[in-house]
Each structure stands twice: as structure tokens, then as C-alpha cells.
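Record type: ASSEMBLY
Status: queued
Input:
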Amino acid sequence: MNVIFDKERCELDSPVMMPKASGFLWNSSMMLHANCRGYVVSQFMQPEPAKYSHAPNIEEKTFMQPEVPYYTEHPGRFVYVKDENSKEMFSAPYEPMRCSPEKYKFSVRRDKIVWYAENYGIGIEMQLSLPRDEALELWKIKVKNKSKKKRQLSIYPYFTVGYMSWMNQEGIYNPDLQAIVCSSVTPYQKKEDYEAIKNYKDKTFLLTEKEPYAWEAAQEEFGGEGSLSMPDGVVADKLSNGEARYETPVCVFQYRMDMNPSEEKEFRFLFGPAKTEEEIASVRKKYFGVSDYRMTDAFALAESEYAAYIAEGQGCISVKTGDEIFDNFVNTWLPHQIYYHGITNRMTMDPQIRNYLQDHMGMCYIKPDRSRDAFLFALKQQFKNGRMPDGIKLKEDTVLKYINQIPHMDHCVWLPLWLEVYLNETNDYDILNETLPFADDKEAISVFKHIDRGMAWMIKNTDSRGLCLIGQGDWCDPMNMVGYKGKGVSAWLTMAVAYACTVWAEICGKIGWSDKALEYKKTVKELNENINTYFWDGKWYARGITDDNRIFGIEKDREGKIYINPQSWALLCGAPDKEQKELMIKMVEEYLETPYGIEKLSPAYTAMQEDIGRLTQKYPGTAENGSVYNHASVFYIYALYISGEKENAYRLLRKMIPDPRRKDFIQRGQLPVFIPNYFRGAYKQIPKTAGRSSQLFNTGTVAWLYRCIIEELLGIKGIRDGVIISPQLPSEWKKAEIIRRFRGAELDIHVEREEKVNKIEVFVDGQYVPDGVIRNIRSGTSYKVSIKLPVTEERNI
Amino acid sequence: MNVIFDKERCELDSPVMMPKASGFLWNSSMMLHANCRGYVVSQFMQPEPAKYSHAPNIEEKTFMQPEVPYYTEHPGRFVYVKDENSKEMFSAPYEPMRCSPEKYKFSVRRDKIVWYAENYGIGIEMQLSLPRDEALELWKIKVKNKSKKKRQLSIYPYFTVGYMSWMNQEGIYNPDLQAIVCSSVTPYQKKEDYEAIKNYKDKTFLLTEKEPYAWEAAQEEFGGEGSLSMPDGVVADKLSNGEARYETPVCVFQYRMDMNPSEEKEFRFLFGPAKTEEEIASVRKKYFGVSDYRMTDAFALAESEYAAYIAEGQGCISVKTGDEIFDNFVNTWLPHQIYYHGITNRMTMDPQIRNYLQDHMGMCYIKPDRSRDAFLFALKQQFKNGRMPDGIKLKEDTVLKYINQIPHMDHCVWLPLWLEVYLNETNDYDILNETLPFADDKEAISVFKHIDRGMAWMIKNTDSRGLCLIGQGDWCDPMNMVGYKGKGVSAWLTMAVAYACTVWAEICGKIGWSDKALEYKKTVKELNENINTYFWDGKWYARGITDDNRIFGIEKDREGKIYINPQSWALLCGAPDKEQKELMIKMVEEYLETPYGIEKLSPAYTAMQEDIGRLTQKYPGTAENGSVYNHASVFYIYALYISGEKENAYRLLRKMIPDPRRKDFIQRGQLPVFIPNYFRGAYKQIPKTAGRSSQLFNTGTVAWLYRCIIEELLGIKGIRDGVIISPQLPSEWKKAEIIRRFRGAELDIHVEREEKVNKIEVFVDGQYVPDGVIRNIRSGTSYKVSIKLPVTEERNI
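Status: finished
Output:
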């Protein structure tokens, strides 16, 4: 197995060794997760997530799941190939026939995914792209005769439609559209639901540019006794032109062709959902039709428009450090993943407030204007009493679902954290003067006051000890039973409030409201005292105290002894003294560090703790129960940087970056194009599965990782006056080239270690800048920055 | 393909020609639907329906569905077999390897299902039974060396566990229990749901009597690249003794054995759900353990106890007519299906009131005491105003689900219909004096008054024309938009109320309340006049009039011209005159009769009619939209008998009875052990799929069919004085032997046609009984009844 990974692509040459290797594509209305073997998960918004390619049975609709298993009849896009003379058959890219290909390639790019499989001298290239906005798959399938003889071939593109509906489903070829059109009615029973149902895109179509030789629309008749591994339909001379009549539909075409040696033929398809046949006709016309305005091929144009759209999601830094894996990931793939979060809101109509704010925090580095709009959109949903809702309703009639039905206590924490990054990047302090209403009060007040009210709400929700009440939960932990009686408190939340107050106090100070700033700093001091009084367990901080006054997350617990979040956030809020810090950091390494990263807690819970809750029922090592939960890890990394622990921080940061040279990761299902929300943990308890990728690319990790890299590791952080340069490069880096796009200007930075240098020295356009601050940044200007580092440097702030 | 069908069993000798052929087993806490190829659907109650053998993905929970598609990785129970020398492999009974067996048998009995597959000289018999009460599968697997040489074999029983939960799932072999134990936590998010969740049986186990050679508990590792059609696990020498760790679990054991020619070995297994390992240990002890009291083999004892339990569901008639298919079905299988309904309440905790009452109407013929209890249980859930609820809550905290959340208007209709059959069978008029409270009023009133109040409620819900308001629906039709504005009316419901009033008037008369009886008869007369005024369309009766005053179900409609229900029930309530009757019956034959039976409406709707509703969105020919909906058909048959149309009635009745000689039915998926809720209709519109069995054995059809046969066809109906003998045998029947168990007595009846006889003549113990009534039936007594029929007789009542 080989993996090629660069800024353009990630490529793999075996579908067998890495059966879960996958890539993803998305646009403004859909998301598609495709793997190296041809399996695909796709969703579109109408406006809630919906499918046009289903499982073979009635699938439950849930939030996006990690570690989704593949199975033989999992939805996918395949091409069966048959030599009409020799009757040799195989399927590309690999499933469902599973012939080991002679040549194989799986190539993930930002704007397309390409598979190539070659067998019996026939090469099949499958290429998938999306248009910019529509929920539609653009497919190109190339057939190549790689042999030296003339061949008679049939190819059969196979697109899963699956079990659409128990009320109504069919699949019929429409010769006018040159498409198999599968129709259904979304099941419902209550009359009240009809108003939504009737507008749904309940059809799935596969539209072909070239007239097919034959087709099949009924799954069972296509597979027959041979099933998908040797379908009766493919074994027969000709597909039966069958229909699905309240049967599981499928879209299969047959093309017969003669191929000369080296000849290549291309077929193009459109696959997606539609409401009506008229809509499908207009899709046909738009992509395959001949129209006056079109100087170029419309299908190709859509592909390039999409590529341009995706390229807009460019990050604000480009680095060249000599570590190619790091460079490729940071320059291309990390901002790509951040951009995905910012554009799609994780394919939900009610994003959790904390996800929404952190995802858009990441967008501050890519599209700050979009991020600003998103923040203001959310803030309008704040309640008059200061509380933020559990989920942001993207449409007025959105219903809060799943975890958003459980009241959490941490939401306001994330407001100043977003703001800090936004101000760092844009210096747009005017945002604080924007006025907005509340969800339950039309009277508009300033953004400043909104946030201030949120902070006040957080501070108010403390108990007599001055610790934050946890209610039915806070961040990152389904701790629904710690405090539901109204008494339990959260160490993490108390720290998070202290940290948020710190950040907010600094912002208050910067805009001249020093009374406020002082007041908040006083609060922080009190909270930190309380934290040390009640939560310090001798070697680390506990996680909380239950309704029944049991402190947990402590050394004497059998499971869940130590949690990472209270350690990270204690560092952020400044609670521990030097001795405490050193001890904590040592303990984190001892208890929580694994070859795959930092575990969220350890040992993972193996049985329900009724005074903690649902977290303890989750499988040990997954999600919140002791996985290497990247979103938690990244805060620890950030906190280490803040605490000047740059070597330790970099070591952990580097571990988080997907790296094809790390076979232990890669063979556990990870392709190096994205960071999953977790790697399986419980390393000491269940080593068999530790390190597996969750395969779920929705995670607040990426925004914070980018921040760590930009503001801390590379140390190029925006401030009111301009930008401060204060890198914390690991000592192993001898030099680096960095381009930083900042407030319209470009900083062209060269960093190098020099023997004679004692501390960091910054030169801008040849001028020595003692405090490392470049002031008066002018948009449109390029600055040459040279940084000299000692061989072992200390930070200069 | 051959089918053997008798009173003991239904047997089939090919899994290929009839891929959906299936049987079912059930006990007081579970239901299991198994097919000839090894696929199984199983559910148990905890108390809501739950699964211990799941699909490979997250399946949606729904009410029981018709026409559920099978797919390669559908849950099942299989045995892989490998010759260790020749490496020949196959799987029994057929899936998932799909080797055409040299010999094959699929045998469905009431108390067990047996598969036999032979390949390469190795025979595998798989036998499945249940215990009487527990949710548990009892498996016997016999391996037979049918060849003349000594063999080294491995067999691998494979039991699907599937995707259990996204919160927690694992599978681990426990050597103390000699079982693979798969554990999970039912997913939930709201704390409030934990109270129920924590009591769930979230484990699935496969317990083996003999120590295995090896095992595998991880689905993916078992299948590997070979998948289920050639699993890596079976290809290898030895299973890897693997565990599933938050991976899809499976239960596979390997047994290696030497087998002499003709040698046979038996293996026994227990498969099912459990809450704890202690519970599994007690199951092991109970069925495989050695205990003092046990004189016989506990496993075998459980099998025979179950057989005895099932045999209790004996019907009240045994016939011998010379038509073996008819006899077997009526004597054994029909009461078995009725018994299933009565015991399990269709595996739901909130049975629809109309289903519940009709299912228990059937139970009047089998277990009248149980039926009485069920009726009284339901009647306590009536509201003070007379309305019955949409669903009966079997437990106090049951929540009404699915269709029971939509208010229907027909519920009270079914009260007197149950009562009539119950009184006919038992003569227990005392039931009318029982006193019961209401759901919303503790004051108890008599059953008589309860029913009377129900009838009054129905009569009250009429419009100014005296037609019954349909609201959001009535029976058999998701007509949720005909009358939701409060104006639309239902022809069927108006007739049903008239018919219920007729029945109720008769009961009132019998208990001497003649004023009431007259009053109700007057109501019936008025309703019938209104029916003729507003619904008669010239050739048949319309189905209803919408909120916007559009009459539908009429000749000038393009789709849904004619519905069967208004025709059947008009005959029952006595609305039509002779001329109307004859015309209607002719039109039903012309428009609705097909080779598979009577369609519910025709032509089936192909598009939404917004003034009718959801019915019109269902797929044409399925369920309520134009299928051969047996529950509707049986009322037409009953109405034909009532109307003296015995030849026509019998022709349709006979068509409904599953018959292996009718290959057109059988090849469409039906085994002759049960009547499905529908056969696919839309015969003229979509001939391809017409006649397919829904495979759903939940249907009110069976109770009414049994009534038709007992009271009408055989004409042995209970009355106050005893029993009236008035057969309506089809002229093709020349004679019949009937045993009728009735109020503790046994009527031993011989019927024969004689040339000299002019009208039906009944002789009891040799005595001629001119009115055909046998009075003063004495329990424990046997009566010899001889009936002489003219060659073409008329009915004598």
C-alpha cells in the first residue's frame, strides 16, 4: 500500500489494505462521503438532511454518526465491466465484485474524487465532482482499452437508490429524459406533516448523456441469484429494461462498445434528487443541452466553477517548513475542512451553538465577513436573560433536535472566544456597536451588551460555593445526571467561565471600558480561588461535584480518574500555580497520552455511573468516553502554547495531523485529508481498536488547530495595532518560509535559526523591530519579514 | 418446485424458485418470521417491540411493514459447512453462499420450522422452535454424513446480531457461559428516557451446548474480503476467537469433527435477548443444565411444552370436504393465525381498537374467555362521551403511536360486532350486566350501557343530511383529507353505523329491551334512506362526500371510481333494493374482481388527490390503494352470504385461501400457511406485480373468514336457544364431514346431497328437526347430526 499526499491530492493504490479510506465533497446544499471501494454516503438539505441514495432497508435518520460500518449492499456507485467475448468481469472501483485490481488508484482532491481500476487490460476511471450549488453528482466514467487487441465490452454504471419509502417507490426509465427516474413519497401519517412532505424532492434520477443500450431499474431483478457479487443482469447478454414497481429501485445502464487498442471512451452522468420530471429535464438541458450562451461545455464549466468555489476557501497562511506532511495539511486541507464547516453548518438546520460559534471562529481566518454575519445571526437568538439557545435555528421554523433538546449550561462561554479571534483577524471593533434584538424581546441592544449579558448569565448560574452549575450538561460530555437536581457543579465550566471572563475583560479593556475589565478580572480571581479550593485533587483538577456532593474525576475513582478538559482550561483560566502546572502536565502525560494522542479521560468508563450519566454508558474509547477526542486535545495543545510549553505542544499537535507515514493511523482507516472528531481511545483497556478513526469530519478541532498554528506555533497574531510576531517553533525546525495573508496585506516571512542570536529578532523590510509588532498594516501591501531565532529560543511576550 | 401442504406442515423443495416463502413462530413474548433461505425477522416485547438480531445499519423502528425486501446481509441464521480435506464449502439452508443444494427441504409447522440442505454428501438439518413464554430461539442443528466415506468437517453456525447501537456495542465469547454475549446500550439522549432504557434487555447471546472449537464475534473480521458469500473466517483453518469492540457483532462458532459414513451429530443452541450475564447463565442452566427435578431433557421438554401451547389454539371446527387444501387450511392454519392475533395483539402495545376488537372476535371461536377479558379491558378505555380511543393501551404508560395518533371516527362500530359473535358462541348474556368505569370517569356502568353510549356517539356524529362525519379517517382508508374541516362524510361509515345499529337492535330485542330495539331500527331505516339519497351513483354506492361537497368513488371519477367497502356494507346494512343489489354485484365483478381476488378500489390512484388524502399517495396496488385487501374482501364475501349469494361468495372465499396448486400465487411469494393482509392489486394498471403477497400476516381477515366459514358456509351458528344448522355449501360440494365444538358439546355432522331431497333436512341423533335448531345443547355431550341437501338447495332461514 502506498499513499501519495500533497497539496493537490491524496492518493492510494490499494482498496484492500485500507477499506475505509475515504474523501468528501460538499457544496452549499449537499455533502458526500465516498470511499476507496466505491461506497458513498450522501445527503442534501430540503431543508433538513435527506437522502437520494438509500440503504437496502428502512434506515433511521440520525445526526451524523462516527464509525459507520460498511456492508455488502451499502449505497455506492460502481461500474461493472464485461468482456463480451471472454466473459471476464470485474467491478470498478472494487466493490461489489471485489476482484483485486491489477492497477488501482484512489485520488482525493478538494474538488473531485477519482478512482481508477484496471483488470483484464481494461481500465475504468471514475471521476466525481459537484456543481457549486445544486444537490447533484457530476460523474465522468472513462473506459480505456489498455490491451493490444480489439475488445467488445459492456459497461454497467450502477448507482444505488435503495429502499426509498414504504408508502410509494418505483423506478422507471424515461427515454425522453434519457434517465432512470425513481419516484417515492416520503412516509408520513399526520396530516399536519403533509405541508412539508409535498415540497420534498422525492425522486432520484440517473441521467445519461449517451443513449444506453439497455437498462435496469429493479434492484432484485438486476442482482437475481448472483446478487451484487455476480449479478444476473450483468451475466445476461442484455439488461432486461426492467422497472421497479413498489420494489427497491436501482439505476443501472448498459453500454456495449467495440474498443480498438488504446482507445478511450467517456460517459457522463448526473445523479441526484428532484421533485418533478420537469426539473430533471431542466437539469439535462443545463448540463448536457446545447444553448446559445454556452461557449463551452456546460458540464465541464460546472466542474471548473466548482473548483473555483472550493478554491475560495483558501487559508490565510502558506508554510514551507521542510515537513511536507505538515505543510500540505496546513496549507490546503486544514483550511478546506474549516471552510466545509463554515459553509455547511455540518449539514444540520439546528447547529449546536458551541459548534456554530467555533466553526465560524475558524471562518474568521478564511471568510471573516461571512463569519461576522453568522455571529450576528446567532446572537439575535439570545434570550433576554442572557442565555443562548442550545441550537441555532437556521430557518425560523427549524425544530431543535437530538442533543439540542437537552438544556446545556456552557453556551455563552463561546461568545467572547469567537469575538477574540474575529477582532484579532479584522480589527473590526465596530461590530460591538451593532444593535440586535433578542429572541424574546424586539428591543435592540448593542453586541457589546448582548455579550456582556451572556457573561452575566454565566456568572449568575453559580452555587453558594461560587462554582458553576452543570444542570443537564456542559461541553463535550453527556453528563446529564451530574447536576439535574440543580446542585451539581462543573469544574470545566467554572474554568471556562473564568477563561471567557478573562478574554472578555481584555476586550473591555481594549475598548476603554476599564471598570468592566476590572470587575471581570475580579470575578476571574474569585472563580480561580474557588476552583483551587474545591477542585484541586492533589495532582490534577477534578471534573465536577455531583448533586449528591460527590467529587469525581479524581485519583481515587476507579474509572474516569482524570479528564483532560479541566487540566487544559485550568491552564487557560490561570488557576494553577507553577507547581500545580508542572504536576498536572506530568500527570496528563502519564495517564492520558497515547501513541494516538491525548485521551479525553482515563480509564474510560465501562459501566453506567448514575450520578454522572449517559457519558458513562458510551462504549469505552469512543466519542466522549475516553477517546482521543481531538476537540478536547486541541485545547490542551492551545493551553500548552499559552503556558509556554511549546515543545510539548508541538509534539501533540504533530500527532494530530494525519500522516500517511504513520501506518498505524492509516491502516486504521484514516486518509490524511481531514482530522476526524476522534481516534478510538481506551488505549490501555482495549488496545485492539485504539487509534481507529471515527471517519467523522465534523469537529471544532480544526478551527482551534488553525488558531494554534497561526497565533501560537507560527506566532503571527493580529492585535489592535497590527500584528505581533512571536513564533514558538519547535526546536527541531531549523527554518521556515511563511506567507501570512492579514487584513489585506501579505507578510512574506522567512524564519531561520542562527547561532549568534540570543532571542527572537524580527526585521520588517530590513528594519529591526524590537517588540515584534508590525504596526499600521496597509491593505494591498506586501511586507518582507525576517525572523532570526536562537538555536533554543524563549518566547518574547 | 414442489409444495406439500397438510395439517401438519407446509413443505417446499427449492429455495430458489420461491425466495420469499416463509413461515412464522410466536409465543407470548416474541414473534419470528423465517424464510426458506435462512433470513429471519424477529421481535420481542420489552414492552415495546425490540430486536436482538439487527440489520447491518441503523434501522428505523416502524409498525410491521408489508413486502419487506431481503438483501444479502439481511438478518438470518445460517450454517456454513466445510469439508476439511476437499475444502468444499456450502451454507445451509441456502443463504448466504447460495449454492444450489442437491437436496433441500423447507418445512413450516405450527410449532417449528425445519430446513434441510444437502451438498457434497453432507446433510444439514436446522430446526427452530420457541419456548412457551420466553423470548428465546431453540435451535437444533443436525449434521449427517450421507456419503460412503469418512469425513473431516467443520460446521459454523452463523447468527446475525447486526448493528446494535451507536452508543455501545460489543461481542465477546464468555467461556463460563459457553456463549457469545453481545452487549449494547439502547441509544437515547433525554435523561427522562433513561428510566425505561435501563431495564432493557440490551444483550444478544448465542449459547451452545457443546464446547466450540473456535468462535468469532466480529462481523467484519469474520467476512473479511470474502464477505458473507465466502467468508475469510470459514476459508481459514480456524476462526480467530475474535471480539467485537464497538464493531458490528456476530455470533459464529466453529465445530470440527470426524464423521463416519451415515453418522449423525446434533448441536443445540439458544439465541435471544437478555439483560445480564446472570440471566444468560440461568437460561443455560434451565435448558442445558442438569437439575434434580428434571426427568427428561429440558430442551426437549420446552419444545414439547411449546407444541402443546400452540395446540391449545385449536379451532372449533374440523371439516373433511374432499378439498384437502381447504380442509387443511380451515382445520389447522386458519385458527392458528387467529390464535396468533389473539395472543400477541400483533406485537404492539397500542393495538388499533378496530383490530383489537376484530382479532378478539376471532378468539371467540378459540378461547372465548380470553376474548371476554380482552373486550372488557378495551371497554374500560372508552370515554364518558361514548367515543372509543384510537388505540388500546395494553399498559397504563403505553403511548399511542403511528396511525393511533390520527383521530378516526369508526371505533364504536366494532363493539356490537364483537359482541354478536361472542354471544353466538357462548350465550353469555351476563356480560352485558358487568359494570365498568370509563377512561375519564370512575363511575362504573353496565357493559350494555357502555355499548349503547358508543352507538349514541356514532349516531350523534352525523351532519344535517344525516350522514356520518369522516373527520380524519375511518376504517381501511388513510382518507385524512376528506373531512378534516369538519364537513366531509363517509358512505362506508354511515353504512357501518347502520349495520352496527342493526346488530345492536337485535341484541336489544333478544334481552327484551324492545323499545331500544325499535328505536335503533328506526335509526337504521333513516340512515339507509340517506345512504340511498346521497350515495347511490346509479350503478353502485359512492365512497364519500368531501369537505368541499365533492362526491367521490363514482363512475365519472378517473381514478378510485368504485370502492368495495361501500358495496359490501350496503349489503350488510340493507340499504339497496333487489335491483340495486344485482347491479352492484355485477359492477363489483366487472370493476374489482381479478384472478387474485377483489380489489379494494379501482382504478388505483396514481397521484395525490388533496381532497382525499394520504391513501392516494400510496403506491397503486398496495395496501389501501387498490390492493386485493383481504380484510375488505372478506366483508364482501360475508355480505354475499348474508345476501344469499352463496356460489359467488364461495368462489371468492376459495380464491382467498392460499393454495399451493395455484402457482401464480405461490410464485409471488406466498406459502399456504397464512393469509396476508393483501395481495398486490392494480391488476389492470400494473400487471407485472399484481398478486404478490404482502407477506404480512397481521390482518383482521382471518377472524371474519372463520366466521364466514362457520356461520355461513357451513351454517352452524350459535343462537340463544342453541345452534341453528343452515349450511350454504357450494353446489360443487357433494358431501362433507364436520365436527363442530360448541358450548362444550360436540356436533358430529354429516352432510350429503340427495336426489330426492327438496330442501335442507336436519336430523339430530336420527330425529328430524324441521327448523334446523338444536336446542338445549348439553356440554360434554356429542350429537350426531345428519344433513340432507337437495342437489341445488335454497337456504331455509
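Annotation: The first strand of chain A starts at residue 3 and ends at 5.
Annotation: The two ends of chain A are 46 Å apart (CA to CA).
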